[in-house]
Structure formats: structure tokens, C-alpha cells
Amino acid sequence: VTPEGAFGPAMASWTAALRRSAMEDMLDASALPDIIPLALGLPAPEMFPAAALGESIASRLRTDARALQYGPPASELRSFVAALMRRRGVACRPEQVFLTAGAQQGMSLLARLLIDPGDTAMMEEHGYTGFQQALAAAGARMATVPSRLDTGIDLDALERAFARGPRPKLLYAMADGHNPLGISMPLGARRRLAALARACRVPIIEDDAYGMLSYDDEPLPALRSFDEDWVFYLGSFSKTLAPALRTGWIVAPEAFMSPLGSLKESSDINTATLGQRVVASFVASGRFDDHLAGLRAEYARRRDAMLIAVARAFPAGTRWTQPRAGFFTWVELPGAVDTGRLFHAALEQEKVAFLPGPAFAAEGATPARSALRLSFSYCRPDAIADGVGRIGRTLEAARAAGAVETRDA
Ligand SMILES: Cc1ncc(COP(=O)(O)O)c(C=O)c1O
After folding, report:
1. In 340-354, which positions are buried (b, 16+ CB within 10 angstroms) versus exposed (e)?
2. Cβ atoms of 318 and 334 closer than 8 Å
């Protein structure tokens, strides 16, 4: 592939699959300073434990000669992660924990290990775009399965697709705090999905980036708790500590540890040594539990503010999800509203940003034109109420002017 009009070196042919997404354009447009940002899934900056992390860094640098050196995975962090996994209902040993530079790197490494170029991977029709990017880079084709707003992945449709064949090489699933749908799968659906994966021999990549941020008193167990062989688990400290630490993990069968190690070494040698050790020190200081409890309480407050605002701002017939975990709610507007056009109108007229449903459509899936994703993680409750109200006003004005109905209405 030679970039058009360029004389420079040609890129490998697979890079044709790398496209700038509509999402990236929208993110650029919505990153202006005076915009109320309900678009991005960024953690609340004022909740970062900056002072405690600062102490952890200073004490590491004073006392740990290996903190700035190349190094193997921090064994104390692997042990802590193994203990943390018990809260997700998962029994695992530190030897099954593979530290990564975030969940994103985890899915990228697993895609490379499970996919040959031209193989098919499967995801829901509306899903996390980072998974699509990781799979495109591994040379995968994408098949999709419908989502349901009550149970998440449509298990009847999945069962039919597996029975019809050909079966995908892997299936991507989020059981808690689904991005973008804001759904958590009911217990029975989790059990059924794990059983289906085993019976049909399709490995699941379970993305649990938001699993620790559950707003229920008794969070449901992760998919991996139902099957240790067929479910690969991805975890992350990005949402519970800070994304800049770039520290996450995979829980996988031990046979995968050595190939994962070789693959990761070829890319970045090892997960940032300092980041790992800072997370380990923070945890060792006993602060993690209080910090997590504070996050859950604050994000639950923001979630509640958003749900109240959504109920007020949008017209009768609007449907939206009630997130039990994570950062997002998904809103489906009645009629045939083009939320791409609504996005531009809201940005220009009311200075508020969200993401239109089609930004999350998997390749080949029917885009959710009348849907939008709202994030409640970044703004404080009063800004959330204000921002959602502004989107509602934009919709009202645009509808009155006939400006956002789709042509196929
Ligand atoms: C569903 C999902 N998975 C993974 C990631 C990336 O996480 P990390 O920072 O751990 O790479 C995100 C980030 O927003 C996400 O929403």
C-alpha cells in the first residue's frame, strides 16, 4: 500500500484495514475546552489518588534499585491481582496472571495468539471499537451477533450462529458495564454463554475493564468464574487507579503464558516497571479498598444524576439502559433521529458532546442511527444534568425544524 501521491516506502498490504474511525473525528471535535464532555469514558480526574501515588513513586525510587531497570513482571502485583480476582468469583494462581500495558494490549496479544490472518472473530453489533482495531491489526474478519438491551449479547442468535457455522475463532464479550450499552448480563445468561463457548469450542475474550466498578452491593461473578479453559479474562487498573499507569492483566491458562511473554517482549519488552511497582506499593499500603469504595460511591452518584436527567430531557418513547456498573448509558430515541446530525448540532448550538450510536457499529453491522452513548464518569452531577438537558433542547429544536430526522424515516 503506497500512500496516495507519496514516493516513500510502501506499507504492508494488511494496513489497508487500518482506517481512521468516525469516532476519532468526533473525539477531536468534542475535545474543545468549553464543551461539556459526555462523550469520552475518561475516569474522573479529581478522583485520581495523585498524592498517594506520588508517595508510592517517591518511596519506590528511594528504596527499590530495580524500579527504573528493565525487569520481569512484579511478582507481588501478580499475587495481588490473583487475590483481586476472587472478588470477581475467579479462582486463579499468580502464575496464571499475565501483566499487560492495559486491557487494550491484552486483547491485542490474545488476538495475535488466537487468530490467523483471514480467520473470523465475533463481537456484538454494538461494541468497543478498540477490539475491532486490535482484530483488524491481527488480520481478522469480523462477524457480528445482535445485542439485547436486557441481557446483552443475544444468546439465542449466538446459539443459532454457532449451529449454522462456520464458528468464529474467538468471541469478544463484556458481562459488566458494557461499552457502549451500559448493560450487565444476568447470572443465568453468563452461565449459558460460558456453557455455549465450551460446547462449541469457541474461546471467549472477556473484557472486564469496568468489572470492579459495580454499583450493586453484590456484583455478579465474571464469565471466567464459569469456565477456566474457554474464557480468557482481561482486567485493568485504568479505571480503578489511573489509565496513565498503563497496567492491566490477562488471566489465561498457563500454557499461554510463555507465548504471551514472547509476543509481548517483541513489542514492548515488559510492562512499564515503574508503573507496576507503583501500583504494587499503592496496594501494599492498604489504600486500594477505601479508594475503590470511594470511586463506586461517586460514580453511582453520577450515574443516578444522569438517569434522572435522561428521564427529564428526552421525549416519550425514549428507551435507555440502567447501568449497574461502568461509565455509560445507552439511549435509543423514538422515531428515526440521525444522532450523527444531532451530535454536530449539540456541539455547535449547546456546547455538549456525546457519541452517536453508529460510532460503535461493528464492521458489517447495521448502525444504531437513533441511539447515543452518554458517559457519566467524567463530569460532576450538576454538569451531567446541565449537559443532558442541553442535548434534550437540541433535539427538541432540531425536530421542530425537521433537521435531524433520517431520510428513511
Ligand atoms: C471496554 C474497554 N476495554 C478496554 C479499554 C482499554 O483499557 P486499558 O486502559 O486498560 O487499555 C477501555 C477503555 O476505555 C474500554 O472501554
Report:
1. bbbbebbbeebebbb
2. yes
Round to whole Å and give the CA distance between 67 and 208. 28
Chain segment 73-101, per-residue pLDDT in tens: 889 999 999 999 999 999 999 999 999 99
* Residue 406's pLDDT band (cuts 50, 70, 90): low
Write out pLDDT tens, residues 18-72: 777 767 777 777 677 899 999 989 999 999 999 999 999 999 999 998 899 998 8
- Please answer whether residues 360 and 405 qualify as being in contact, where contact means their C-beta atoms are separated by less than 8 angstroms: no
- Distance (Å, rounded) from C-alpha 312 to C-alpha 88? 35
Query: 112 C-alpha vs ligand 1 centroid, how far in Å?
Result: 18
CA–centroid distance, residue 272 to ligand 1 (Å) = 17
Task: Please report, rounded to a whole number, the percentage of residues in the chain having pLDDT higher than 90.
Answer: 80
Strands 248-251 and 97-100: antiparallel
pLDDT of residue 1: 58
- Pocket test residue of 128, 212, 299 for ligand 1, highest count of atoms within 8 A of CB: 128
Kindly write down the DSSP assignment for every residue of 181-232, as one continuous string.
T-----HHHHHHHHHHHHHHT--EEEE-TTTT-B-SSSPPPPGGGG-TTTEE
CA of 317 to the centre of ligand 1 (A): 32
Is pTM beyond 0.90? Reply is yes
What does the block give as the cell for 145? 451477533
pLDDT at 192: 98
Enumerate the β-bridge partners of residue 372.
Answer: 331, 356
Three-class DSSP category at 163:
helix
Cα 375 to ligand 1 centre (Å): 14
Question: How far away, in angstroms, is 9 Cα from ligand 1 center?
Answer: 33
Q: Which tens digits make up the pLDDT trace of 142-183? A: 999 999 998 899 999 999 999 999 999 999 999 999 999 999
Helix (H, G, I), strand (E, B) or coil at 96: helix
Ligand 1 atom closest to residue 178's alpha carbon, by position in its atom list: 1
Q: Ligand 1 — pocket residues by CB below 6 A?
A: 41, 102-104, 128, 130, 179, 207, 209, 236, 238, 243, 248
Mutation probe of ligand 1 site: the residue of 104, 249, 377 with most atoms within 8 A of C-beta = 104
Amino acid at 153: I
Closest atom of ligand 1 to CA, residue 106? 11
